[in-house]
Amino acid sequence: MYHQRNNTMPYGYNNATNVAGATTNNMSNVAGAATNNMANVAGAEANMPNMPQEVSPYQYGCQHPLLQTLQNCEAMCEHTLTCLLYMNDSACRACQIQLLMDCGDICGVAAKFVARNSPCCQVILRACAQICEACACECAKYPDPESQMCAQMCMHCANECKACLR
Length: 166
Fold this sequence. Notes:
Radius of gyration: 25 Å
CATH topology of the largest domain: Substrate Binding Domain Of Dnak, Chain:A, Domain 2
Distance between the termini: 73 Å
Structural class: mainly alpha
Low-confidence stretches: 1-49, 51-58
Oligomer: single chain
């Protein structure tokens, strides 16, 4: 219906070819940039302090007990955060809410690093321990059962992270 009458391709076909060609060229540029950036990241990774030179493939991984602790802590922080949003005093708990979000996020990231046996595990676990401990201290200030349970879970997670740093 929208085709031209003289045996040519539908309207806009040549434009689509040009767009596809441009996209291919742009993707080549992006791939080249990504390769260069990955080389820079790899170089920076070698300069990170306290990085183990060789990591045993069995040092961390899916069977590591810390993995379950990190996942449980992430879930507990998310649950506590959700409960707090329905409480009358949630406006007064801005620091706790921020720490719950930070703690849940860092535990999720740390779990991924542990599961894939990242050479950066020590760096992320150190940060995770600090954030979990701060979240535990903040949650312990409040008497509601969700905050109290979260404080215990976060402190346990912080201690487990620290144990893996030794």
